[in-house]
Amino acid sequence: MYIERITQIDESIVDAFKKLMPQLTGRDEYPSYDELNKVIESDNVHLCLAYDENKRVIGTVTVVFVTIPTGEKAWIEDVIVDKDERGKGLGTALIWHALQIARDKGVTKIDLTSHPSRIAANKLYQKLGFEKRESNVYRFNPDK
């Protein structure tokens, strides 16, 4: 297994997200070629894929960097381990990979969010040293 940052999008990557995203969201929605291309064009986003020994995509993690008045921080987003690969340590490997990317940029504040229903994922994050914060997360939908 190996993990690498994606710097070019092709249809095989779109197909991988077509399979992985519903496993995270529960919806049959996934990013298009153009949307994925827009993601990787940003210097502040590291989109990484995990591959098995047959070069099949088995997971993904995204690290987003933002500089604000309180300093630079990183967000770990869209951690997905293919359902057929769970329980083999891939989630841990993806998180450690994301943390190393953030450390390499000198970031000391690293956050992630996870829906409470994702029990195994939440346990993993706490086991790896993430602390649950007392904070509210709000989202505004301008289309409503």
Automatic annotation (TrEMBL):
<dbReference type="InterPro" id="IPR050832">
    <property type="entry name" value="Bact_Acetyltransf"/>
</dbReference>
<keyword id="KW-0012">Acyltransferase</keyword>
<dbReference type="InterPro" id="IPR016181">
    <property type="entry name" value="Acyl_CoA_acyltransferase"/>
</dbReference>
<protein>
    <recommendedName>
        <fullName>N-acetyltransferase domain-containing protein</fullName>
    </recommendedName>
</protein>
<keyword id="KW-0808">Transferase</keyword>
<feature type="domain" description="N-acetyltransferase">
    <location>
        <begin position="4"/>
        <end position="144"/>
    </location>
</feature>
<dbReference type="InterPro" id="IPR000182">
    <property type="entry name" value="GNAT_dom"/>
</dbReference>
<dbReference type="GO" id="GO:0016747">
    <property type="term" value="F:acyltransferase activity, transferring groups other than amino-acyl groups"/>
</dbReference>
<dbReference type="Pfam" id="PF00583">
    <property type="entry name" value="Acetyltransf_1"/>
</dbReference>
